[in-house]
Structure formats: structure tokens, C-alpha cells
Specification:
mainly beta
């Protein structure tokens, strides 16, 4: 689990992926990105035979807001 207000960013460098965010499918190709709050249910998978390279960033709240 992530702290409250954590965000995730996914950037597709190569290949194709399918992100499912709260039940909604979002197809992603090279150069595409998606950002969402980490509390949303999410799944990510490659959908092509070619290699899929992703950059995944997670940004949490500033430490002074963690209790």
C-alpha cells in the first residue's frame, strides 16, 4: 500500500501496454503516458509480442505530511 495522495506515472518507452485503472482499459503505445492516484485499483500488462519498456514513477506526499 502507498501513503495517501501518492501518484503513479507510467511512460511507455517502447512496445504496447494496457493499463486498467478502476476498471477502465487504457491502451498505451510508445510516447504515451498515464498518471493516476495510487489508491485507484490498477493493473498494467504488455499486450504485444515485442518487448515493452516502461518508465514507472511513484510520487508520494512530502515527508512532513506523513503522520
Amino acid at each position: 500500500p502507498h501513503p495517501l495522495n501518492t501518484r503513479e506515472l507510467i511512460y511507455v518507452m517502447d512496445g504496447s501496454a494496457l493499463a486498467t485503472i478502476d476498471g477502465t482499459d487504457v491502451p498505451l503505445g510508445p510516447g504515451d503516458s498515464i498518471s493516476f492516484t495510487a489508491k485507484e485499483s490498477h493493473e498494467l500488462r504488455a499486450v504485444s509480442a515485442e518487448e515493452c519498456q516502461l518508465l514507472i514513477l511513484t510520487k508520494g506526499p512530502r515527508p512532513e505530511f506523513l503522520g
